[in-house]
Design goal:
heterodimer, A: mainly beta, Ubiquitin-like (UB roll), 5-stranded mixed beta sheet, B: alpha/beta, FAD/NAD(P)-binding domain, 7-stranded mixed beta sheet, globular, disordered N terminus, disordered C terminus
């Protein structure tokens, strides 16, 4: 669905995305890393339907995930860092 | 709010938003010797328009075009201007005495400013249709940010749907970086072309016109089909979007799509201004509520100004100019310069702003949102994503006696979710306008209550806030 066209010469950032280790170019947002790794959804709505990155500018909160144990973190407003642990969120109010 | 003496920081000028308006305002303010603090939610300056130029994934950004690359000049000047900056920080409340509540990394702080310039820009105009909440459906602005900041683009041929120059610009940028565009499904109402004609003569000699023609030429050369007169967009799929369905010339069509990029113009983001009770006026062309301010961007609330697209959507050329106007006027309000100096300094800027706005009439009319935009929205489609409120339920509410958007919000919860109405208010209002017989003024605008973006209760408690703010801070002046 999505792919990265970033330069490959910088050392990639390695972090855990929904239980698996992924590597992406530095400077990538967590939301972009999700999409580039085939993960279009990171949470479900109140009624249980899958939701994922939509506005990518911090306004819709659809990309909220759990990052390093902190809930309700917008994936689009977070840059990847080595060792981050990104988990699915069940509901935005988690 | 009542609070303890906890950690309030004082500043003469607080600028909220480090986009073109905020950056230009800061440069001007620093030149006038004002102690300035700029806060922005992102980790780098540039706003949405120049996102990625000051930090992000490394890639050849020349594919984004010259109008984007020139933003580096403004960013460089901003970074050298001497203003204090705080990134990764969002303002979740502001009180009429100019205390801003700012959250960074899960901790909130209070900042007391003598003057504030709100430069919070614009957001995508909500575009509701069947299946618009499916993962893989993203806004054109969002798709462009994925490219600008993270160098992430669609892998398979991509479908773009909706209306507005951003959709066309994004398509040309995709072509430039080798992404295949399957089709642009153009939903611009046919009547808009006719209406825009009367602005055509004034549009043709502008730089905007040259840019538009160049975009259309590139799309043509790239073999991108632009299908006009498209209606009834629907995203189909179970766990994510798999196809897009649409109607054109009475026929129904389907295209496979692993992602669908949608756009229906942008509108001013004024939630912070509403939180401090700045009066808004209904604008019938953009079909949105705009803050009431003078030529310098000063609102009737003491010490609160507005600049950039949050004042009215005029784009990246105009935004730095309205930012400078607000900053020079703030210098006057703060006692740095007298009225004569302000008027002398702002005269050339005001002239430039007039020039930069030329040609907008054509674009604004051509891509103007239609009053009938939600007429064909299916009843089961969601109007509100957060609280999952269908169009049918809003239509039912519209036939009740009080079709005020705040009563509808309290009954249906649309506007109460984490996005605080950012992606439903327009749809709900259009539905109410069509089904209630009430005017935009009667329907009103969503009352904004803090926090305007979700913050943890523990974060508020840690501030020493002992009392939740009342719904009406200033009785009698609530926006309707």
């Amino acid at each position: 669905m999505f792919t990265s066209i970033a330069d490959r010469n910088s050392k990639p950032v390695e972090f855990t995305l929904f239980g698996r280790v992924v590597r992406v170019p530095p400077g990538t947002s967590v939301a972009a890393a999700m999409l580039a790794n085939g993960e279009a959804a990171g949470r479900v709505s109140a009624s249980g339907s899958p939701r994922g990155p939509y506005c990518l500018m911090g306004a819709c909160f659809e990309c909220s995930v759990i990052i390093d144990g902190r809930a309700r973190v917008r994936a689009c407003m977070t840059e990847v860092r080595d060792g981050l642990n990104v988990e699915r969120s069940q509901h935005v109010d988690d | 709010m009542s609070m303890t003496e906890n950690a309030a920081e004082d500043v003469d000028l607080l600028i909220i938003g480090a986009g073109p308006a905020g950056m230009a305002a800061a440069i001007e303010a620093c030149e006038l010797g004002i102690d300035t603090l700029v806060v922005d939610e992102k980790f780098h300056p540039g706003g949405q328009i120049y996102a990625g130029l000051a930090g992000g994934a490394a890639f050849d950004r020349s594919v984004l075009g010259r109008d984007y690359l020139i933003g580096k000049n403004l960013i460089d000047r901003f970074q050298a201007c001497g203003a204090r900056t705080r990134y990764g920080a969002f303002v979740w409340d502001m009180t009429p005495d100019n205390t801003a509540y700012i959250s960074t990394d899960g901790t909130s702080r209070m900042i007391r400013a003598r003057h504030a310039i709100v430069a919070t820009g614009a957001l995508e105009r909500p575009f509701a249709f069947e299946g618009w909440t499916l993962p893989g459906v993203i806004t054109a602005g969002g798709a462009q940010l994925l490219l600008k900041t993270s160098a992430v683009v669609p892998q398979e041929p991509v479908v773009l749907a909706g209306s507005g120059p951003l959709l066309l610009l994004l398509a040309t940028q995709y072509i430039a970086c080798g992404v295949s565009v399957a089709a642009i499904l153009d939903t611009t109402p046919a009547g808009n072309r006719l209406g825009a004609l009367r602005h055509f003569a004034r549009f043709i000699p502008t730089a905007l016109a040259a840019k538009g023609l160049a975009m259309l030429w590139k799309l043509r050369a790239g073999g991108v089909p632009i299908l006009s007169g498209v209606e009834d967009i629907a995203a189909l799929g179970s766990a994510r979007v798999e196809a897009v369905r649409y109607r054109r010339g009475g026929e129904e069509y389907r295209l496979p799509a692993s992602c669908l990029i949608v756009h229906q113009g942008i509108e001013s983001e004024t939630r912070l201004l509403r939180a401090v009770n700045v009066e808004h006026r209904w604008d019938n062309v953009s079909r949105s509520w705009l803050p009431v301010c003078d030529d310098f961007g000063r609102t009737a609330i003491p010490g609160v100004s507005v600049a950039g697209d949050g004042r009215a959507v005029l784009g990246a050329q105009a935004a730095p100019l309205s930012g400078r106007l607000a900053a020079i006027d703030a210098a006057r309000a703060l006692g740095r310069i007298d009225v004569e100096t302000r008027d002398r300094l702002t005269r050339p800027v005001r002239a430039q702003l007039g020039k930069a706005s030329r040609g907008r009439g054509f674009v604004d009319t051509l891509f103007a949102p239609s009053p009938t935009s939600c007429d064909r929205l299916p009843g089961e489609a969601l109007a509100c994503r957060c609280e999952e409120v269908t169009a049918k339920r809003v239509r039912e509410e519209a036939t009740r006696s009080a079709a005020n958007i705040n009563s509808v919000k309290s009954r249906l919860r649309c506007g109460m979710g984490p996005c605080q109405g950012r992606y439903c208010e327009t749809t709900v209002r259009e539905l109410l306008l069509r089904h209630s017989g009430s005017t935009a003024a009667e329907i009103g605008l969503l009352r904004i209550r803090p926090p305007i973006k979700p913050v943890g209760v523990e974060e508020i408690i840690a501030l020493g806030v002992t009392e939740l703010p009342p719904e009406a801070r200033i009785p009698g002046v609530l926006p309707r």
